[in-house]
Each structure stands twice: as C-alpha cells, then as structure tokens.
Amino acid sequence: MAINENNQFGELSFSDSALKELAMKSYQLFFKENVPEFELNDKDIAKMIKIVENDDETISVYIKTKAKYGTSIIQFAKDLQEFLKSEVEKMTEVPVRNIDIVLDGLIVSQAEENIEELEKIPEIEEKNTDVEEKKEDEFYDEDNGSVEN
C-alpha cells in the first residue's frame, strides 16, 4: 500500500519501500553523527526498521536499535525519535504519527572496553617494609659476582 498526496500539479505517491528507505537513511545519518565508531550496513538496518501506514494517511515507524554506552538512553531515544520524524516529514510531507523504539542493547566503544578491562585488573599493592637492606656482599659472591644460595 502506498501513501498518496494530491496537490495542484497532480498526485504524489510514496511506496512503503521508499518510505522505509528514507527512514533507513535518516537512521543511518543519525547513527553516523551520534555513534561514529559503530558501522551499520543496509541489511542490518532493513531488519531493524518497519514502516506501517495508518488509516488516517499517517505513518508509524518501529525501530529496534542499540544505544551508545555512557550516554542517557532516554535522551538518545528521544533524539532519535525527533530526528527521524523531522527528516521523514521534511522529505515527504507525510505526517509521522509515532516512532516506537525498542532498545535492544548497548554499543560500547573500544576505549570504554579498555577502561572496563583496566577496572577488572586488581590493584598491585606495594609492600612497605622497614627491613634494613642487606649488604651487597651477603647477596653477591665477591669472586665471580654470582648470587649466593
């Protein structure tokens, strides 16, 4: 089913696949700006986005996505909703009723993974001993410089 719009010059029609591709490109642009270290390919994005035409000639967008670790997930989702709505409406003049987002996981950058790994390493405690250092001649043999047993 397609969305049709009439104007003074004739009829405009947007197929579901065209609307989905528009949403996909907008989603990809949003991710490129907000999570540049994460590459998305078109196949993966196509599985993540669904467009539904509503009875009142609006569309609804459903997205299953990941959010960037270390940022506000709520703000990330709100920003994504606003961006997609404005981009799709700007390019098609088709009203977007809602954009539903399911957050499916987190994207952790390589730098953050390294920090997490460092946090897992137990700290090495230095032992402070007040024991007097032994003289060199106790450790080394004066004749050949080897360590005594």
Automatic annotation (TrEMBL):
It comes from the Bacteria. Residues 121-137 have a biased composition (Basic and acidic residues). Signal peptide: none annotated. Residues 138-149 have a biased composition (Acidic residues). Residues 121-149 are annotated as: Disordered. InterPro entries: Asp23. Pfam families: Asp23 (PF03780). Belongs to the asp23 family. This is Asp23/Gls24 family envelope stress response protein.
